[in-house]
Design goal:
The chain has 14 helices and 14 strands. By secondary structure, the chain is an alpha/beta fold. It folds into two domains: 131 residues, Aspartate Aminotransferase, domain 1 (Alpha-Beta Complex), CATH 3.90.1150.10; 233 residues, 3-Layer(aba) Sandwich (Aspartate Aminotransferase, domain 2), CATH 3.40.640.10. The strands form three sheets. It has a seven-stranded mixed beta sheet, with helices on both faces. It has a four-stranded mixed beta sheet with strand order 1-2-3-12. Strand 8, helix 8 and strand 9 form a beta-alpha-beta unit. Helix 3 packs parallel to helix 11.
């Protein structure tokens, strides 16, 4: 059979503990879920502020459908550039404190498109070793020389900058909040190095948007580095509870991407309901700072509780708290034990994380209650006691 290799590949994945399957969610996204017919506490979602089911987003989507219909009909450069796209982009630019913004259909579309538009053959990209897969793929598509420096290693980053050809365009790309480890990049130091060696900086704020900074605009805003960074990418589908992504930066960057970015040019634009939801979400981030305060309270409470039980969570001080297990099969077994006790904490395995670092990626929401946290900690305690008896 010509496709026999598929069965062999699936068998290999199962033997290595890397086989994946989809779980079915029924009902809305919230701190509790109906997962494969079981009600569970959700500690795996990127819905950090709990906006995915907020009434304001629901109403905005309904009103947009009533006024504009369902689909956008075409790409932005044909007939799909609607008033809502431009309203959202103006709001994002104000939110991020930049001259302009451009909306993309997903974070993946944004990263592969931005990177391959800014640099090409003969240029150099310097990329953190733990950057998201979309950044990795964007680096490949750019056809530039790619220098991968060890995670947050400023000395190795500087070595790469020194060795880059003088005539080449140099671009440093990093997440500001790393999606699997929950730690922050040393962004101020990275920007200093970039300026010393004449490099551009692009950041991925996917997991920081809505959460960090005085108004939820991200790590860049928290550090006051907005005017020193060329491109700030972020997503609308995590803390903002909607869908899609954006890049914020100078007006010239927006114009360049409209003209050169293949993942923007050659795709149907996001529909009206999605734009309206995102507009409502950005507004809520401004108006309801108490959501961020609740999220940080929950982060501290769960982190302190898990550490008191003897669990190690690394250096994360964010809403992403990795519990490193190491072995992929043991990691998934632990995830399944917790699920049986009504706690959904997804196991993460290679290739999403490096080999030997499989972990539970535990994430918090502003809408988790004291009771939710108490029940989760009780489940973790029971699992640990059961393992000690074996």
């Amino acid at each position: 059979m010509a496709g026999g290799f598929i069965q062999e590949e699936l068998k290999r994945l199962k033997q290595q503990g890397l086989y994946r399957k989809l779980r079915r969610v029924e009902g809305e996204q919230g701190p509790t879920l109906m997962l494969d017919g079981q009600e569970v506490l959700d500690f795996s979602s990127n819905n950090y502020l709990g906006l995915a089911n907020h009434p304001a987003l629901r109403e905005a989507a309904k009103e947009a459908i009533d006024r504009y219909g369902c689909g956008s009909g075409a790409s932005r450069l044909i007939s799909g550039n609607m008033a809502l796209h431009e309203e959202l982009e103006a709001n994002i630019a104000a939110f991020k404190g930049t001259a302009a913004a451009l909306v993309f259909n997903s974070g993946y579309h944004a990263n592969i498109g931005i990177l391959s538009s800014l640099v090409g053959e003969g240029d150099v990209i310097l990329s953190d070793s733990l950057n998201h897969a979309s950044i990795v793929d964007g680096c490949r598509l750019a056809r530039a020389q790619v220098v991968v420096y060890p995670h947050c290693d400023l000395e190795r980053l500087e070595e790469g900058l020194k060795k880059a050809p003088v005539a080449a365009r140099k671009l440093i790309v990093t997440e500001t909040l790393f999606s699997m480890d929950g730690d922050e990049a040393p962004l101020a130091e990275i920007v200093n190095l970039a300026e010393r060696y004449g490099a551009m900086v692009m950041v991925d704020e996917a997991h920081a948007t809505g959460v960090f900074g005085p108004n939820g605009a991200g790590v860049v805003a928290k550090l006051g580095l907005g005017d020193r960074i060329l491109a700030q990418m972020g997503t609308l589908g995590k803390a903002l509870g909607a869908f899609g992504a954006y890049v914020a930066g100078p007006r010239e960057l927006r114009e360049l991407l409209i003209n050169r970015c293949r993942s923007f040019i050659y795709t149907t634009s996001l529909p009206p309901a999605v734009m309206a939801m995102a507009i409502a979400a950005v507004d809520l981030v401004y108006k309801e700072p108490q959501r961020r305060l609740a999220l940080w309270h929950n982060c501290r409470a769960l982190r302190d509780g898990l550490r008191s039980l003897g669990y190690s969570l690394g250096e994360s001080q964010s809403q992403i708290q990795p519990l490193i297990v190491g072995d992929a099969q043991k990691c998934m077994a632990l995830s399944e034990q917790l699920l049986q006790k009504g706690v959904f904490a997804q196991g993460i395995r290679p290739p999403t994380v490096p080999p030997g670092t499989s972990r539970l990626r535990i994430t918090l929401m502003a809408t988790h209650t004291h009771d939710h946290l108490h029940r989760a900690l009780k489940a973790f305690e029971e699992v640990k006691n059961e393992d000690c008896k074996m």
